[in-house]
Amino acid sequence: MCGNEKLKEDKLSLFGLTDEQREFGEMARDFCKKRLFPVARKFDEEGIPDDFLAELTELGYLGCSIPEQYGGMGVDLFSLINIIEEFSRASGGVATLIGAHLGLGCKSIEMFGNEEQKAKYLPQMAKGNITSFCLTEPNAGTDVFSIEAKAEASGDFYILNGEKQFITSADIAKYFVVFCKTEKGPTGFLVERDDGGVSVGPPEKKLGIRSSKTCGVHFQDVKVPAANIVGPLGKGLRVALSVLDYGRLGVAGIALGIAEQAFDEAVEFAQNRVQFGKTISSFQTTQFKFADMRVEIDASRYLLYYALGKASEGQRFSLEAAKAKLKTSEVASFVADSSIQIHGGYGYTEDYNAERVWRDGRITRIYEGTSEAMRSIIGGMYRGKKE
Questions:
Q1: CA–CA separation, 8 vs 5, rounded Å?
Q2: Residues 113, 174: one domain?
Q3: Residues 86, 368, 372, 387: which is the catalytic one?
Q4: Minimal CB count within 10 Å: which of 18, 107, 209, 216?
Q5: DSSP 194-229
Q6: What is the DSSP letter of 32?
Q7: What is the pLDDT of residues 16-54, one digit of tens each?
Q8: CB 261 within 8 A of CB 270
């Protein structure tokens, strides 16, 4: 075990994680080192191959948080976030695929699906049938109340029409949790890819997390059984916002993993890079950078683990999730940028991993709620009773 890994093990023990929770993270770390990190850049360029997705399914990662009675592993929140963190250290794109599938798509059915829906769909999702979460639209991003997609009742069915944008894993998704306006108000529906009228656009050309494909999805006269309504009719925004709290915990885990990876790579480079006859890690300016990076990462972890603790105990955690998501995402960008600075000119090239980590980290300040939206949630607590 190298020095940085030993420090991480000691650090995690401070948070009171059980041996089992830590073991899930360690197993994911070993897998990612052997199978993902060496091919992460290739996956960014060519996409995630089917055989790798099949391997993730076989190992249980695509169903790890789904309850055991529905074919998953039933891991707790702390274990799930440790797994996501380790995947994000190797590839922010692959971590995003796992996090969105489990934390948004599957979570919608776990939390708000009826027993029939859970029994029918969760086992399929645990088997690697990817589920996309369709909320964002061309004119409804942060303003989720402005969704325009419509679902009109027709006997025992609803007819869906509309456009969704920036949908994670839409290129390979088997299922879509889609939010539409109805006569009773916004409502969630579970749509199958093979339903007539579902079409997926080409992947966006993105700055980072390139192995995770992001596409638009068009729904034209899609006939969905009323039995596939997710949650109460007309309460779709409550469903979406409740699920997004869990999604933000996942993004915080991704951001934390990116920050940890950026820090480790900066330390390794600095300990080996010689200038003026000394390693640059011996310079006080570099050590000050390390200090700032390390303190910010550890502060992020405390905020995230506090939010995980409240969620695990069944308490409300929307505010804590917003704090954790805001802090970890801002720290990921700060640490990744500092890593490039420590690498100097090398950090700006593809010869080192620093530039890819920086690109992957930038999205965490945008998806599942921008930093500005998180500040609105947090700051809104203090706007005053009269307003």
A1: 5
A2: no
A3: 368
A4: 18
A5: TSTTEEE-PPP--SS-TTS-EEEEEEEEEEEEGGGE
A6: I
A7: 789 999 999 999 999 999 999 999 999 999 999 999 999
A8: no
